[in-house]
Amino acid sequence: MAVRRVVPNLQTDAVPESREFYRLLGFEEVMNHGWIVTLASPSAPAAQISVMTSDKTGPVTPDLSIEVDDVDAAYAAIRAGGAEIVHPLQDEEWGVRRFFVRDPGGRVVNVLGHR
């Protein structure tokens, strides 16, 4: 299993204002679902940040997203390791397969793969 990207998720009630703030730092919008906006550096597209009001289908807003090349293998490894699954593995309508897990420090990690 390989990690493709890691994206911090910042929860905010000011998504449009946050989007404009990060644009001042050179980020460009690469995804906007209304409840989440992801911005990326044009010169280093894997350098990304997301701002969101809350997660559309998850029980909590994740602190971090990690995209992997094999989300099913990641899910199996996390389960075998005994970590707390916060949101089960599922396919989402916007084209990702994902689950949430709690890390040892209490942060919620959204682990995903694109279909």
UniProtKB/TrEMBL annotation:
Pfam families (alphabetical): Glyoxalase
SUPFAM superfamilies to which the protein is assigned, alphabetical: Glyoxalase/Bleomycin resistance protein/Dihydroxybiphenyl dioxygenase (SSF54593)
VOC domain sequence ranges: 2-114
A Gene Ontology molecular function term of the record: dioxygenase activity
rRNA-binding in keyword set: no
Top-rank lineage group of the source organism: Bacteria
Organism taxonomic ancestry: Bacteria, Bacillati, Actinomycetota, Actinomycetes, Kitasatosporales
Keywords on record: Dioxygenase, Oxidoreductase
Organism: Streptomyces indicus
Protein name: Glyoxalase/Bleomycin resistance protein/Dioxygenase superfamily protein
Keyword Oxidoreductase: yes
